[in-house]
Amino acid sequence: MSSNSNNNNKENTMTTDHHSCSMCGKDSKTRCSQCQSKWYCGRECQKTDWKEHKKICFPVNSTCTRCLLPTSANQGICCVPHPEYLMEDMGSSFGPDGQTLSFSCKACGEHFSKVNKDRHQTNFSFQPAHAEWCFQGRHTVKPLKEGDERRICNDVATINRNDGDTTQQFQQRLTTEMDPSTVRILVIQNGDGFYDDTVEPVLDLHMPLLEELQLINVCFSKIVLNDAKTPRLSTIEMQNLPDECDMELKCSNLRDFNCRHHHGDCEWVQDMLDTTHQLVSFRTYKLGLDEVKFGPHLAMLKHIYIHRSDCLCDVVLGAPHLQYLRLQGCYSLESLKIKPKGGSRFTVETVNSNMSQQVIKTLKNSPRVMWDGDEVDEHAGVGGSPMEAMFRMMH
Ligand SMILES: [Zn+2]
Ligand SMILES: [Zn+2]
Ligand SMILES: [Zn+2]
Ligand SMILES: [Zn+2]
What we know:
Keywords: Metal-binding, Zinc, Zinc-finger
Protein name: MYND finger
Bound molecules: zinc ion
Largest sheet: 10 strands, parallel
Radius of gyration: 27 Å
Shape: elongated
Low-confidence stretches: 1-9, 376-395
Structural class: mainly beta
Distance between the termini: 51 Å
Mean pLDDT: 88
InterPro entries: Znf_MYND
Number of domains: 4
GO molecular function: zinc ion binding
Pfam families: zf-MYND (PF01753)
Oligomer: single chain
Number of helices: 5
């Protein structure tokens, strides 16, 4: 901020109404020119008050850059909830205190729980109580620092399935609670944190600006994501996709694929891999893959984590710049092909996987593979990544 600590640059506005000085109570004819809400008898009182008043003095009709409310709202107090799309699910449990959902917030770093004492209501209280807000402070009109995500964004939307929603009601909310033409980050989830199959919505919207999509614990009957509908989609995270979901995911700009719990036909996964050229990270947990092929066009692909694809028997790796492959709890690996011969070297971990002699031979002999030959200790190399930690909790 520039020179606003000096009130001399705030010209007082003259008026004929009757007001008393907010400092000394005397009759006053002037008020703060910036916010026009504080009255003073004269310059002295205004000067004395400025040290405090400047914290809540904003131009008339200005908007808070953090919460997007008028700066006059809530007596200047600014409260921002944890952004749903940055909440990492750290598991849930039932106990004598009711239902507990644990989270970690990537915007503020806080770990906290939401506790619901009555199973039949979704009436959550925060623990610890001070963790309710991602940001709690004063409104501001300054631009926020890049990377400060404790803020409300117009182009971020979260749609929760509520108790009692019918499929039709929920379907309608997909277009009334957000604007498909402007949404950039979208979270659609079941409000109580568990999978629910009583609503079966369809996701088939033109969302030209959509970059990140999270579909969590909602029983979609059909999902259409392709270059015509969602040309900018780069990050997708899905949890509990119903087996019979009619799924299309063909987005050339997809970079980050993360899917947990889908046991149906997985041909759409191969279509996804064949369409994108930008994929950097492929992470799955309990995905019903029989075979998977990472083609040579996947020049950006660095990380592959496949955990508990129990029926996965055939893997072809053509990605030329792969750095890390983790096959964990894959119990049926029969065939592994690695090409091209001249690609990058990459680390392989095969935790608790069941591999045929052919797979073992390939891992031992490929010039690209760094593999210590033994099954890695269950917890080796796991601690660092929150994703791995989550995999372990869900396991
Ligand atoms: Zn005064
Ligand atoms: Zn003011
Ligand atoms: Zn937060
Ligand atoms: Zn605010």
